[in-house]
Amino acid sequence: MITIEQLITRIEQRQPIINKADIDAEQLHQEFDSVGSLTTATHKQLSFLADPNYISSLASSQAGAVLITAEYFDQVPQTAVALVVANPYLAYAGASQLFARESLFNGIHPSAVISESAVIGEQVNIGAFCVIGDNVHIGAHSSIDAHVVVEANTAIGHNCVIKSHVVIGHDSVIGNHVRIHANASIGSEGFGFAPTRDPSTMGWERIAQLGRVVIGDHVRIGSQTCIDRGAIDDTIVGSYVVIDNLVQVGHNVRIGDGTAIAAKTGIAGSVIIGKRCIIGGDVGITGHIEIVDDVILSGMTMVTKSIKKSGSYSSGTVAMPTAEWRRAAVRFRKLGRD
Amino acid sequence: MITIEQLITRIEQRQPIINKADIDAEQLHQEFDSVGSLTTATHKQLSFLADPNYISSLASSQAGAVLITAEYFDQVPQTAVALVVANPYLAYAGASQLFARESLFNGIHPSAVISESAVIGEQVNIGAFCVIGDNVHIGAHSSIDAHVVVEANTAIGHNCVIKSHVVIGHDSVIGNHVRIHANASIGSEGFGFAPTRDPSTMGWERIAQLGRVVIGDHVRIGSQTCIDRGAIDDTIVGSYVVIDNLVQVGHNVRIGDGTAIAAKTGIAGSVIIGKRCIIGGDVGITGHIEIVDDVILSGMTMVTKSIKKSGSYSSGTVAMPTAEWRRAAVRFRKLGRD
Amino acid sequence: MITIEQLITRIEQRQPIINKADIDAEQLHQEFDSVGSLTTATHKQLSFLADPNYISSLASSQAGAVLITAEYFDQVPQTAVALVVANPYLAYAGASQLFARESLFNGIHPSAVISESAVIGEQVNIGAFCVIGDNVHIGAHSSIDAHVVVEANTAIGHNCVIKSHVVIGHDSVIGNHVRIHANASIGSEGFGFAPTRDPSTMGWERIAQLGRVVIGDHVRIGSQTCIDRGAIDDTIVGSYVVIDNLVQVGHNVRIGDGTAIAAKTGIAGSVIIGKRCIIGGDVGITGHIEIVDDVILSGMTMVTKSIKKSGSYSSGTVAMPTAEWRRAAVRFRKLGRD
Q1: Is C177 a catalytic residue?
Q2: What is the least distance, in Å, from the CA of C183 to any CA of chain B?
Q3: Considering only residues 13 to 32 of chain B, which have any Cβ-Cβ distance to chain C shorter than 8 Å?
Q4: B6 by DSSP, 3-state: which?
Q5: Of B100, B129, B282, the CB nearest to C266
Q6: Which of A280, B258, B294, C86 stands the most exposed, by the fewest C-beta atoms within 10 Å?
Q7: What is the CATH number for C298?
């Protein structure tokens, strides 16, 4: 259970509670077990009003506390504690973390296979059947769920959360406060081959990938996402980068700080992406190009050339009735023949 | 080995065997070890004629039994037992299940780590190195292969098949007769962040995802597919939904009963999809939109707005020689500038 | 550490070292621990000049040895051993393999669960928590990392490398010198259903997938890639095929020798792909079509019909400023209505 006092402490890491002086001792100790939307929250749940379109749900809300701007403060029902902030959605984000279940186990499960040369920090959790290789370092307060494989010489920072079935290849560097979700593959071998006409290899001689993956602080990596190790130099993910599920990050890619990447996007080898970019779902970025800072790519955009100017870019065509689409697609083909 | 008698029992769960009275006792006990196409099947294999285009293969087929409509009954070779049904393909589907190898282990492997508070039904199989968390319920006759992680408080129904390396997050609800294939991630944390201008977070404050994943009965989920837990409310997959490999289902998505989703499709957060939709491979559906019942989306369609009318929709352009494509793509760009 | 002598032996498996006679005994025993680009390599690293655009970096390179064509031999610095070959990039590819870390463990980890009926060849490595099923065969010198599940009756050839968390379904056939990366799913059940109007199944009766996956020699399969087992016949991947991460290969697909497939490509069921094709990232290929030998598909191409002539094909539209794109997309829609 989380008290109003704990909520306030967490929220004030980012912004002040404007009406803190008005919250009395009894309210400070009121307890909450979860969050809810204005329409569904109970008196044991915290809610918030971030979007004024939902203002009509406020008066009848059963929530025990509501995060809200000063503008709507007087519409909060008597049954709820109002917590007034400049940015209720941001306050909710911080508060939500207090209610999350963080690790599968406490302590180090006896079934884990941990190399004697591994260095494990204080209050680290390591779940069942983990395999921690030689010379691995894991920083304090990090939680490794079940079945995680960390190959030799990899360093994981402090306060990280690595969910079950993640594989982290050898010699990787993972920063602090990094979260990696189930089944992600970090530091697999990149896709590199030298073409050859030798019929005994049918055209492909493997290039062993000898670079590393280096990930900054406060990075989030989704389930089933692949970040390949570099060929010679490293694959680099900056700090505060957030990556969704099923994303492919090829070898030698560099991603700037604060960039967000939605699910199913593919970034081919040696691409350089700037800071604070927002990349929609299922975007494809061809190899060896550069995208500057502050670029927005809408979902399914195909990027075949460097983008040198910040701004919003798109491509593709949108859903239409199939019979009409057939005609349009035929006409597109003709555009190439005229 | 499966007998004709067993085949008949299984097939008649869906439709009658029209010529059952004509099958004699000796034929009823004839045994089969597998299935085959008309051209390759042996006398120990079951085959079928579903598509009249293959009628020419029937006369010379070596199959030991053939599922067939009444129309072609008299063309079945003497060496084969004919099983006459209205829908041979559907009959074959049911029959095929008798030949499938279902679970890796029988019983509960001693290496599995199972919480004392977990409730395991009768005749459940749990394979090597599984991790079953606190208060997990697993219904009777379910089979969990190796290395499956089921986090705390999750309920799995009866007669489910969960293949190796699946991770199911805490508090999930999985119905009965559900099949989940290798390496799928159910109930990972959704991709939710509150934007902030605070330079210490470079723009992203994590929103802990406190909803669940709730999956109905008779659902099929493919390998590497991700179904994220809801942010506040739940992510909901209806009954009889079939989902292929490498599909992304974002947080708070709701999918109606009987919808089929082919590989590599991505469904962004809070999308609502109706019943009996057929969604082709690699379709992209943008967040917060709604698709009504009985919509068909062809492969690679980009859906950016709600679809309010049932029917078939498509987008994109189709493969053409690269030189011609370059000209057409340039002309498309110009369409936006004129 | 790798000596020049060892490098020469490896490189000469593919092409002669033209200046071998000029390399003295002291140089032959010079040792290297890694590779580097011309600009970053140290005297303990091997480098190469494959692309004449980088010639300006050669004179000042600190590399201990350089792979180079005869044309630029006289520009190699005195501090580096020059190794003259016709194709430096191919030589580098072979040399790089000497520096790679290949297996997580040596020997067979005591925690692995290996069926008594499994046949394990000489000098096979099997890592922690692997599960090796009944009648599995693993050829000599193969390395299986941690947490790999190999179901019953599967045969894996010699000199294979299977990384952690791979699942290989029952009855699969994997050739020699095959490399499969972390979290791949080989031989999961294909996506096959018979439509039915029976409301109790909402339209889908599962077809059990009774075919196998058969993979040739020298094949490379990336992380998170899915290769489904065949429905009746087998899914077949030829020799020297290289497949990147997050690729979907549907049931009954056949891929010809030497074909390369980049990340995130999806190949629907029963597609036949020829030899030596090069398939870019995120390509989509619809089911039941055929692509002949020597076809090149650029990234994100949508292939909806058979390709009967070798050559290069493309589709899609490319990134443009979003405001312009909106107009172009609207005009594309109108093309279908006129």
Answers
A1: no
A2: 7
A3: 14
A4: helix
A5: B282
A6: C86
A7: 2.160.10.10
Confidence bin at C241 (pLDDT 50/70/90) = very high
As given in the structure block, the two tokens for residue A279 are 């990349």
Rg (CA), chain A: 24
Q: Quick one: B1 exposed, middle or buried, by C-beta within 10 A (0-12, 13-18, 19+)?
A: exposed
d(CA B23, CA B3): 12
Domain presence at residue A189: yes
Q: What's the pLDDT score for residue B335?
A: 85
| Cβ-Cβ contacts under 8 Å, C147 against chain A | 129, 131, 147, 149, 165
- Mutation pick from A172, A207, A303 vs chain C, by most beta carbons of C within 10 Å, is A207
Gap between the Cα atoms of B228 and B236, Å rounded? 10
Residue pairs between chains A and C whose CB atoms are closer than 8 Å: 232
DSSP state at residue B54: G
Asked, for residue C298, whether it belongs to a domain, the answer is yes
* Whether residue C244 sits in one domain with residue C144: yes
Chain C, window 310-329: residues with a beta carbon less than 8 angstroms from a chain B beta carbon:
311-318, 320-321, 323-329
- Mean pLDDT, chain B, whole residue set: 95
β-partners of residue C313 are B321, C297
How many structural domains is chain B composed of? 2
Tell how far CA A264 is from the center of its chain.
13
Residue A163 DSSP SS3? coil
Q: Are residues C53 and C119 in the same domain?
A: no
For chain A, 338 residues long, give each residue's pLDDT as a single digit of tens. 999 999 999 999 989 999 999 999 999 999 999 999 999 999 999 999 999 999 999 999 999 999 999 999 999 999 999 999 999 999 999 999 999 976 677 899 999 999 999 999 999 999 999 999 999 999 999 999 999 999 999 999 999 999 999 999 999 999 999 999 999 999 999 999 998 876 666 778 999 999 999 999 999 999 999 999 999 999 999 999 999 999 999 999 999 999 999 999 999 999 999 999 999 999 999 999 999 999 999 999 999 999 999 999 999 999 999 999 999 998 888 888 87
- Residues B52 and B71: their CA atoms lie apart, in Å, by 10
C37 in the same domain as C72: yes
CATH number at residue A23: 3.40.1390.10
Identify the closest residue of chain C to B86 by CA–CA distance: C196
- Say whether B281 and C266 touch across the interface (CB within 8 A): yes
Position B249 in a domain:
yes
Enclosing domain of residue A81: 2-99
- Could you give the ipTM of this predicted complex? 0.95
Instruction: Using the structure block, give the residue that is written with the tokens 């290798």.
Output: B182
